[in-house]
Write a structure and sequence with these properties.
With about 190 residues, this protein is mostly helical. Helices cover about 80% and strands about 0% of the residues. It contains 11 helices and no strands. Helix 4 crosses helix 5 and helix 8 crosses helix 9. The longest helix has 28 residues.
Length: about 190
Amino acid sequence: KNTCITVVTLSVRSAIEGGLDSEDAFQMCDNYMTQIENLNDVRKLTEFTRNAQIELTRLVKEKKDQADSDNPYVNKCKKFVYKHLHEKIVIADIAKEIGLTESYLSDIFKKKEGITITAYITRLKIYHAQNLLIYSDYTYDEIAYYFGFSSRSHFGSAFKKVTGQTPKQFRDHNREGEFWTTETEN
């Protein structure tokens, strides 16, 4: 048992050095120690210790893969979009700001995110528009204008494409009636 505890402790320390969150790693270590204390068969102890090492190795690999998949250009693109969410956003302007060609930025964004930049922009605008539809009294025209859509009908068609509902259907279905009547009566 002492050997297994030593091996697991060293494995947890290595996993932390490999990038695993220390709090999570120590929590796992505590769980491993409890399980080791409850085992009495040498074969089961050896198997459990080996499985703990494999699990820690897998978690470190996942952490590294996640870090490697972050692309600074995609992150800059997303920040630009969020900063200019209330304007008409042109991909050429994003590319120029980042220092890439439009086609290269579009390619790396699509590979990383699985959708086009235009689809990402539309989804983000619609997501925020949903909040305004539920929690504000802004008109559909005001919301469309606020998010840089060229017209109410453009906003409506984009909204329906993303959510499957018109803005009115979404507002009617998701708004809490009692909240709005209570607020307007006060």
